[in-house]
Amino acid sequence: MGRKILFVTTDQQRYDTLGCNGGTVARTPVVDALAAAGIRYERAVPQSVVCMPSRSTILTGQHPSTHGVWMNGVPLPASAPSVADVLHDAGYRTALIGKAHFEPFLDPFLRFPENALARSGVTPPGGTHRGFEYLEMATHTSVGPMHYAQWLMKEHPETVGMFYNVLDNALQVNADGGGESGAPQVKVNEIPREWYHTDWVADRTIAWLDSLDTDVDWFCWMSFPDPHHPWDPPQSEMGRIDWRDVPLPAGYPERADERESLLDDKPRHWRMWYDGELVSNYEAPAHWVPATMTAEQVREVNARNAVECELIDEALGRVLGAIESRGWTGDTDVIFTTDHGELQGDFGLLFKGPYHVDALMRLPLIWRPAPSATVTPSVVSQPVGLVDLAPTFCAIAGVAATDWMQGDALPVTTGAGDAVLTEWDSELFGVDVHVRTITRDQWVLSAYTRGTVHDGSEGELYDLSLDPLQRKNLWSDPARAALRDDLLAELWDKQPPPRVPRLQLEAPV
Amino acid sequence: MRGSIRREVRIACPADKVWTLVGDAVRIPDWFPGIVDAVVDGDTRTITTGSGMQLPEQFIADPLQRRFQYRITGMKEHVSTLDVIDLGDDTCLVIYSVDADPNTMALVIGGAAGNALEHLRTLMET
Description:
The complex is a heterodimer. Chain A is α/β, with parallel strands linked by helices. Chain A has helices spanning about 30-35, 50-60, 65, 85-90, 115-120, 145-155, 195-210, 255-265, 270-275, 295-325, 360, 390-395, 480-495, and strands at about 5-10, 40, 45, 95-100, 135, 175-180, 185, 220-225, 330-340, 365-370, 380, 385, 420-430, 430-440, 445-450, 460-465. The longest helix of chain B is centred in the C-terminal third of the chain and has 23 residues, at about 105-125. In chain B, about 30% of the residues lie in helices and about 45% in strands. Chain B has helices at about 15-20, 30, 105-125, and strands spanning about 5-10, 35-40, 45-50, 55-60, 65-70, 75-85, 90-100. The radius of gyration of chain B is 14 Å and the shape is globular. Chain B has a single domain (about 5-25, about 55-125), classed as START domain (Alpha-D-Glucose-1,6-Bisphosphate, Chain A, domain 4, 2-Layer Sandwich), CATH 3.30.530.20. The relative contact order of chain B is 0.28. Chains A and B meet through loops of A and helix 3 of B.
């Protein structure tokens, strides 16, 4: 009998939303305890800051250029390599419960396998899908083909309309505001907590674990849709945090002229989005202008986000309790992370996009190795990537990493680290943005190649140690020219091999 | 906001043979994955998608130009155009163009159409 793996992901969660990472709004004692008993990573970097490419990196162990999911709406081929396949072949029972999102959601033709599977059951035809023998899926909403929405429609149809409408009548991401501040993608949701998707994901995970024999090895990817917008947690839980008492984030300059000055020091698309002149990411509401956001809206969004993080923490606690009751704790590794971050008020912005700063790029990552492995708890400071997760799962399972994996098993102590790469490509209705980023030591450099917005000359360079809020762009600083050129040389030298032929964009998201 | 998407595929099969299939409105479920049923009445067609959604359409089929055009009548604005162009060497180019408002529907239909064209090529070349 080997080590079992509980892999926990959230969606769009910032590093600083966890108590163990210095967060002060949400209470996260369960994850904090895992960090204290395991390894806490201080600089975990995604290879993409949007869902589908980043999740595909987690599954394949490859950079987006190589697995080919270059933006949301590009489906990961069913034949793509999968670490779950490797584990399944090694004898692991495998499940994915919660948000998958390797394929587009907006699918009236029901032509993508994950959407079709949700209509037909929980076990894929042929035995596995992407290496998972059991899939029970959810997303952020109460509509659509996923198991959670189907369950809600069948068991509690009166609650379906309680959720925020993610899309408006024109099928654009909804800009409507709600709550008490009128913040976008906010709604008072009267759904009972036990029917909300966070608890549903935990319930279904526990049910799957309960179905297993005691002596099997298992890999369970428990994937919470929150705290991704919309911010509509059960209203019964909103009493935990009074949004008026939530401090404004350190990254949110309260004065408009200060925000605008900071944005003007960055490549042009920052200010263009702020002013409502450009939307380069479909998942940001097309008709929302960030410059209109108020400090009160930032506070309310942060409060609701924190409540969602607390619910996730409590749900995880229940699952860990179920694992304990089965006598598995000593042999179970728990890894907790997310796919990318959330701007959440930084620089006067919300949501995400081609903005490679800590809000989106510094992720929570905790690895509590199985106690039987007797790994010494530590904090790892050097950059690591989500691309390193697949080889880490292999190492835990005692199987060799495959040659198609591009990362390395996560380190368990601080040491000299390699550079970590991140990429962005978006091409939609005449707006093309392309960014390549390298994080090395305390430096993060982003180069903008030619597109419809940038002319190929712009970039960003930040010193994370002296400028943790990334307010001073050193790209054009003559004193940093040699460093910039050295980072650029390594960035281009290390670009991963591209998938050929390039995959096509097939849906908005 | 309006949007336009174009997908195309070259098929190693004479244009007339491809047109026989794609120009027949009722046969769209045979080559378009995700469309499970089609009912034709005169110049109207109602398709049923894999998710159970029914979409009423009006269409024009022009066998001389090998051009099939349709619009989904329930949408604010939509027209899709399918052209089969003879390349003169027993191959043809099939072009599927979608113009729609909202633009997201152009991408949803265009994405599915691109997949359908690949399926069509497989069907016609085997």
